[in-house]
Each structure stands twice: as structure tokens, then as C-alpha cells.
Specification:
Low-confidence stretches: none
CATH topology of the largest domain: Aminopeptidase
Distance between the termini: 13 Å
Number of helices: 11
CATH architecture of the largest domain: 3-Layer(aba) Sandwich
Strand order of the largest sheet: 1-2-5-3-6-15
Helix content: 25-40%
Number of strands: 16
Structural class: alpha/beta
């Protein structure tokens, strides 16, 4: 550990910030040519370092950027994973979203938190080791993927191609906490059918809007009955995102004097590893059954909604005493002098990440840990500079621990 800590002190801070700023300047909106341009850039950087680097086809012209730093043999391998595609810029920005601005406290840009800072952290950790003449026994695999915003198609393609390691770190923004469990997501549609009357006779009606107002608070406090532990229950959540009530299934809005007899709600649920969507829906149906008893004459149904042709991000978990978790914890403490926050921590535990594919399809042990988070997906998205630089150092120490110095 002593030698590794000395190497961590050699991280070139200016070069590391420049590397991230250059990534931010690539407008890599998801499903646009810009994400391929950034992937090509990443392959060029990795090739210049001497890694085996290549573009991996995913779909159409979309590609992942893959780099492999081969070890001498005898050590465990470690795979880093992060996506290159970003959300679009919203209103409210006061700085250039693609400027890569660095001030005394932050580096700014669309996607810098979600999640180019995480990608740059693993790249700069490897670069520091290579530039200081380090050799490792185990392989380090860098997977910079596209399509995380389409259910993780890039990571799923990488796993299906045979890219695997003993352990992985997914660099989604967690404010440097070690996330050991996150949820799987599903989308649902609830329809409530009441009985209409003119407002003059609303006492005879079954008001679907009022019934929906009764339902929503109960849904938002719901956890699922198959949670095997309090940790799993802590990442159970139901959220109603849209509500539309009016007259009839076509939701006619031009007759407000009548009591609304139809409401459609859409929402999202989260459940942990070992829990099932079928059970979650059964629990929601029990809530709807109680609602119908409180509102005689009301009909209520729930169904799931799938995205055609896109995968679902599975839940993931790793044991608290897994070697990858303890290695990361040790690296964090060596750099920051305090214990690393670790566990099924929220809000990250409610996310869907590519860690689910690495865990479920790849069969790998791993952890979610990356810089950024508190200023994620908001105007003037940014990352604290000390967090970014410390993440590089923590990754470097973890690499040395898992893959072993020769």
C-alpha cells in the first residue's frame, strides 16, 4: 500500500482536469453522432497509452470504446465501466454546457457528473500508473459504453462479447460512496374508472379524480412484501409521475361541469435483488382492491409498460465483505483518512445502472462508486474538483490492490 500511495501522489492534477474538460467538449448526446466521436477520441487516448484499444459495434453506427491493459499474469482482473452518452441540455444554464469550464471549485458541463468524470477517473488512474513505469499482474479493462440511457445496451453488448473480469467498478456518480445494492425498475399504468354525473348530482357519482387523490399517497409510501431484508426494503419505492383525469377513456376535457369518470396514472417502481415485478404488481393490486372497497362502484387496474426492443436494467448487489468492496474501502481511507460511506445508500440505490448487467448477465462481483452526484442532471451540472481528483487516486490504489504490483 505504501508504494501505491506514493504513486497516487503523482497524479497530474492539471492533466487530469484537461482530460475531463476535453471529454466534456464532445457533444455526446445519446443516439447522436457525437457519442461515436467521443468513443473514437477515447480509443485514440487509450491507444496512445499503449493499451489494446478498439471500437466495439453495438447497433447501427453506435460503438463502445474498449481498452485493455494486459498484466503479466497471476493477478486478479478489474473492469471499469461507464457510459459516454449524455442527457440533453435543459434551460437555466449560466455557463457553456460544452465549454469544459474549470474554476477554483468545480468543473462544469453537460454529462460531467453523469458520468464523464467517472470515466476520466479510471482513465487517468491507469495513465498515472503507466507513466510511472508500473506493471501489474492482473488485467485492467476499461469499458466506455454508449446506450446506458437505452437500458444499458452498450454494456450488455460488451458482456455478451465475452468481456469479463474478476471484479468491476461501475463509475456512476455516487459522491464517492461505495454502493453495494441498487434497485431494478419497472413502469406501470393504473386506470381508474368511476361513474359520471353532472356536478349538481355529484353525490351519485364515483369521482375518479378524487379516488386518485386518495390512492397516490398510499402508493408513494408502499414497499413490497417480498423484501428479504431491511436493506432491500430501503430501496423499494413507488412513484406516480403523471396523472390525467377527464371524461371517458379518451379523456375529454371540454366538459368540466361533469364529474370525471376516468383517470390514467403512470409511474415507476423500484425493487431489490431477489424481489420480483410480479410480486410488486400483486402488492399494487392489493392497494387497488382496498381503494375499490373505499370507493364502491370504482374499477381499478394496473399493468406494466415495456420499452420495445430495450433491455431492463437488473438490480445488483455485492457482499459488504467482498474483496472489491474492502479494497475500495481501504483505498478511500488511505486517501481521505476516514471510513467510506458504504451500503445500499440512497439516492443512488434507487438508480438503475449498468452494474446490473455486469452482475446479472456477466456474473461479476462489483461495486458502484464514482465522482459527482450532488449536482447531477441539473443546470450548470458540475463536479467538485477535489472529489474528481481523489476518485482518480482511490481508483489507482484499488487497481494496485486487486491487480497487484509486480
Amino acid at each position: 500500500m505504501t508504494k501505491a500511495v506514493e504513486l497516487a501522489r503523482k497524479v497530474d492534477e492539471r492533466a487530469s482536469l484537461d482530460t475531463l474538460a476535453e471529454m466534456v467538449r464532445h457533444k455526446s448526446y445519446t443516439e447522436t453522432p457525437g457519442e461515436r466521436a467521443l468513443a473514437e477520441h477515447m480509443v485514440g487516448v487509450m491507444s496512445a497509452l499503449g493499451l489494446e484499444a478498439y471500437l466495439m459495434p453495438v447497433e447501427g453506427d453506435r460503438v463502445n470504446a474498449i481498452g485493455i491493459w494486459r498484466g503479466t499474469g497471476g493477478g486478479k482482473s478489474l473492469l471499469f465501466n461507464g457510459h459516454l452518452d449524455t442527457n440533453p441540455v435543459t434551460e437555466g444554464w449560466t455557463v457553456d454546457p460544452w465549454g469544459g469550464l474549470v474554476d477554483d471549485h468545480f468543473i462544469y458541463g453537460i454529462g460531467v457528473s453523469n458520468m464523464k468524470a467517472g470515466d476520466a477517473s479510471s482513465l487517468c488512474a491507469v495513465r498515472t500508473l503507466i507513466e510511472n513505469g508500473v506493471r501489474l499482474k492482473g488485467d485492467v479493462i476499461l469499458t466506455y459504453v454508449i446506450g446506458e440511457l437505452q437500458g444499458g445496451i452498450g454494456t450488455l453488448r460488451a458482456v455478451e462479447s465475452g468481456l469479463k473480469a474478476n471484479y468491476f467498478i461501475n463509475s456512476e456518480p455516487s459522491d464517492l460512496a461505495a454502493i453495494t445494492m441498487h434497485a431494478e425498475a419497472f413502469t406501470f399504468v393504473i386506470e381508474l374508472e368511476g361513474i359520471t354525473r353532472h356536478l349538481s348530482k355529484r353525490e351519485e357519482a364515483v369521482d375518479a379524480i378524487r379516488a386518485a387523490c386518495d390512492l397516490i399517497p398510499e402508493l408513494t409510501t408502499l414497499t413490497f412484501s417480498d423484501a428479504p431484508s431491511d436493506a432491500h426494503r430501503s430501496i423499494n419505492r413507488v412513484h406516480v409521475g403523471t396523472i390525467h383525469g377527464a371524461l371517458g377513456r379518451d379523456l375529454h376535457e371540454w366538459r368540466p361541469p361533469q364529474v370525471a369518470d376516468f383517470v390514467r396514472l403512470t409511474g415507476s417502481g423500484r425493487y431489490g435483488p431477489g424481489q420480483t415485478e410480479d410480486n410488486a404488481l400483486a402488492d399494487i393490486r392489493r392497494v387497488l382492491g382496498a381503494l375499490m372497497q373505499r370507493w364502491p362502484g370504482l374499477k381499478a387496474t394496473v399493468e406494466t409498460r415495456k420499452s420495445a426492443g430495450r433491455p431492463i436494467m437488473p438490480a445488483f448487489e455485492v457482499a459488504r465483505d467482498s474483496r472489491i468492496v474492502t479494497a475500495l474501502n481501504g483505498a478511500y481511507e488511505a486517501i481521505r483518512g476516514e471510513a467510506q460511506p458504504t451500503g445500499p445508500l440512497t439516492p443512488t440505490g434507487f438508480y438503475g445502472t449498468d452494474a446490473g448487467h455486469l452482475y446479472a448477465a456477466g456474473g461479476m462481483e462489483g461495486v458502484v462508486c464514482g465522482p459527482g452526484g450532488r449536482y447531477n442532471t441539473m443546470p450548470d451540472e458540475r463536479v467538485d474538483i477535489p472529489d474528481y481528483l481523489d476518485m482518480i487516486r482511490i481508483y489507482l490504489l484499488t487497481i494496485c490492490d486487486i491487480c497487484e504490483l509486480t
